[in-house]
Design goal:
Length: about 775
């Protein structure tokens, strides 16, 4: 045992501030240890009790998620979720954030975010096959936001391109609330290459603990605590808390680990991510209901005179911790040495449920595993009963507050000018949040591994071909997986419950639009401080939305990440919280990737159809049109009927499977007009559209959002078969689902008529120019 009288001397108040712990935490630590912690132990508790590692504010909310399903093999609790996607293939996937590191060191922050999520995947025994990302930045009228965007994109492309994993999709949005606090969420997918899923629980007392990978340095010390506190004007001083990555070492680590896992000689594995050696050792011990002893003198280091605190809290990249079979130590070490990696036994599994750390021949930490990893504190909060007053005021907004439409022209409240519908479409297309992200994704290698079916931007979801290793039959039908990341942050800000339901629904809709069946989700909950009543209410309401939507759509939650304290504080101590942003990463499966479709029109004269739900509201409220054209962020986001949503998606997938539907695109930001324009741009073909106005305003018809709506094109050569198919489906006038033909694919122009009035007639080249050059014009 440690002699309490020999503990380090330190300033308690200063230490608690550094570790982001409270005096109540300290008293609880003393109670659990039955003595005072030394400085090293206090640091270990600081990272393990941080929101980033133990979800102390969010755990009660996360426990309500549906986590089981017919395809789920591994749910929350391991490094990543695992689902069965058929054809004897198992998909491993997860999403993580690296927000605060990217705010102060955008290149390395984003790069190591990619490296970290890839390790979560191959730690399970899976080869990474794809990366997607969800990014948020402040508006591009500020040079600092442009610098952040440039640095983050460079970091993502550098690491992904070098390690050889394709970046296949994602989303980017811009809003002033993210100025100074960008969001960098990275999702990775992998295919299991081992007979058994590699888990993290230590087994077999006496088994060696093997350290493999890169050396340990002082970079990233305290990164988990840093990620669990708000950004301030002094956050640049925390640059040492940002790790430095090496994608070439990671590539070697992937190959060496998968080679080692296939032998069956690795009993348990854990990557050294957040909280480094502390977290990996404590979690392996706790998950195996055993203990671990580690000698820091044996840890490969790149710097001299490192303290035990620095060894244990370093988040140096490309490192792993294994429990292995004792008789296989030498052969495993040889495997890693062959790849130019360090491999060294640094400890062993012990029977006592403790993490025991020695350094310089002395025990420097001895802590019960339950105290560090299992029985961690939970901060309970009272959730306010009613929506905040500011939201109730925003929900009062109605469409009749907008100017009247006169001679098909609309007055912009934002610019105090009159615009035609054509001018509005071009204006919306050039807004960075809607415009093409080509400047970004052209920097990513999306084709490496040769299994990417559609290039980024071509389809509503990424589609990856599942090719077996050493496949000999060149004519076989390949199955595939689809993946999408999605969140309309404006909707979540205006109604966290409805907005999050919409995020789950849209991510599923994106997957269905390529012809894949949505199966499960991972989520990244980016919110402000939970210590603020409104911040916690937003988080709580959002979690309820995820639960409701996932239950209805039968897409359970397999894991994810919570990133709180996303807010920035200026020199006057004024706090700006981000928009609440629960990013949903949806995965789906498709039996034949040859059946997958993109968003682009295929053939001139193909029919264009629209499907949606009468029960799912369609409104200008909370829309991109209302914000970007009229300068108002107001109204309540449209309510979604999840069962109608599920029917619309199922109907579309079946029609795609039967080869009637040859392109599809969901209606989201900017409404119907923007969705039609995007299909025209992607295909370099036009469209002739005829709509009925009835009593709806022109701008509602063109730019309203919601309604679970999808536009799709039907092969004109199959018109008779299509009509017969629809008769069998029996969607009639009394149904809550509407399905109607609205036009056909044409050449060169997007032409929209409402009640025989020409509302829009724009050349596709003009649409394309506005859409493609908006973001790149800032660089």
């Amino acid at each position: 045992m440690i002699n309490p009288e020999n503990n380090d001397q330190y300033d308690l108040n200063e230490a608690l501030k550094v570790e982001n712990l409270t005096i109540n935490d300290y008293e609880e630590i003393c109670r659990r240890l039955k003595r005072k912690p030394n400085r090293t132990e206090l640091g270990m508790f600081g990272v393990m009790w941080s929101e980033h590692c133990c979800y102390r504010n969010s755990k009660p909310l996360l426990s309500e998620f549906p986590t089981k399903g017919k395809n789920v093999l591994v749910g929350p609790g391991e490094n990543a979720g695992v689902i069965d996607v058929g054809s004897n293939q198992k998909l491993v996937f997860k999403i993580e954030s690296h927000n605060h590191p990217s705010a102060i060191e955008p290149f390395q922050g984003a790069a190591t975010g990619v490296g970290g999520i890839l390790r979560d995947i191959f730690t399970m025994g899976a080869r990474p096959i794809a990366v997607l990302n969800s990014l948020r930045f402040g508006n591009l009228d500020k040079s600092s936001n442009i610098d952040l965007l440039r640095g983050v994109v460079s970091g993502i492309s550098h690491y992904g391109n070098c390690v050889g994993v394709p970046t296949v999709g994602g989303e980017i949005d811009f809003d002033d609330s993210y100025s100074g606090n960008p969001l960098v969420n990275v999702m990775a997918l992998g295919l299991l290459e081992t007979n058994e899923i590699v888990c993290s629980g230590a087994k077999n007392v006496g088994s060696p603990v093997l350290y493999v990978g890169n050396t340990t340095g002082r970079d990233g010390v305290g990164g988990a605590s840093f990620a669990s506190s708000e950004l301030t004007t002094t956050s640049l001083d925390d640059r040492p808390a940002v790790q430095v990555g090496d994608p070439f070492v990671e590539k070697s680590l992937i190959e060496a680990c998968l080679d080692a896992f296939k032998t069956g000689d690795v009993i348990a594995a854990q990557d050294m991510g957040a909280a480094g050696l502390t977290c990996s050792s404590a979690e392996m011990a706790a998950n195996g209901n055993l203990g671990i002893s580690i000698d820091l003198d044996l840890v490969p280091s790149r710097e001299d005179n490192m303290s035990s605190y620095q060894y244990l809290l370093s988040e140096s990249q490309e490192r792993m911790l294994f429990v292995v079979k004792e008789e296989k130590i030498n052969s495993l070490i040889e495997k890693f040495n062959k790849w130019g990696l360090y491999a060294k036994v640094i400890g062993e599994v012990i029977e006592a449920n403790e993490v025991i750390i020695s350094h310089k021949s002395k025990i420097v930490a001895q802590i019960p595993t339950s105290a560090l990893s299992d029985d961690t504190p939970i901060d309970f909060h009272n959730v306010i009963n009613n929506p905040p007053h500011y939201l109730l005021k925003k929900w009062e907004w109605k469409e009749n507050k907008l100017p009247e439409i006169y001679e098909q022209k609309i007055f912009s409240l934002k610019e105090n000018k009159i615009f035609s519908c054509e001018e509005i479409i071009l204006k919306l297309l050039s807004n960075p949040s809607i415009a093409s992200k080509r400047w970004v994704y052209k920097q990513y290698d999306s084709q490496v591994q040769a299994n990417t079916v559609f290039k980024p931007g071509e389809s509503d979801a990424a589609v990856i071909r599942l090719r077996e290793q050493n496949e000999k039959n060149k004519n076989r039908v390949f199955s595939g997986v689809a993946a999408s990341v999605d969140c309309n942050s404006r909707w979540v800000f205006l109604d966290p419950f409805r907005g999050t339901i919409a995020a789950v629904a849209e991510s599923a809709r994106n997957v269905s639009c390529v012809g894949a069946e949505p199966v499960a989700i991972t989520n990244n909950l980016n919110f402000s401080s939970p210590e603020n009543d409104i911040g916690y209410w937003q988080l709580s309401s959002s979690c309820k939305g995820i639960s409701e939507a996932c239950k209805a759509l039968e897409t359970p939650v397999t894991g994810g990440n919570v990133s709180l304290y996303n807010e920035s504080k200026n020199k006057d101590n004024e706090i700006t919280p981000i928009y609440p942003t629960p990013v949903i990463g949806m995965v789906g499966k498709i039996d034949n990737v040859e059946k997958a479709i993109s968003s682009a029109w295929k053939n001139v004269h193909d029919q264009i159809w629209l499907i949606g739900s009468h029960k799912s509201e369609t409104t200008i409220a909370a829309s991109s049109y209302l914000e970007y054209f009229h300068g108002e962020i107001a109204g309540r986001p449209p309510k979604i009927d999840l069962y109608d949503e599920k029917f619309c998606q199922s109907f579309l997938r079946n029609a795609i499977l039967k080869s009637f539907v040859v392109s599809s695109h969901d209606i989201s930001d900017g409404g119907l007009a923007i969705a039609l324009a995007e299909c025209c741009i992607l295909s370099s073909k036009g469209a002739k559209i005829e709509l009925n106005q009835d009593t709806i305003r022109y701008d509602n018809l063109l730019f309203a959002e919601g309604g679970s709506r999808i536009i799709f094109s039907v092969n004109n050569m199959k018109e008779k078969e299509w009509i017969n198919y629809l008769k069998k489906i029996q969607i009639n006038s009394k149904s809550s689902i509407f399905l109607k033909k609205i036009g056909y694919v044409s050449n060169q122009t997007l032409n929209i008529k409402i009640q025989d009035n020409d509302i829009c007639n724009i050349r596709v080249e003009e649409l394309t120019e506005k859409f493609n050059n908006s973001i790149s014009s800032h660089f």
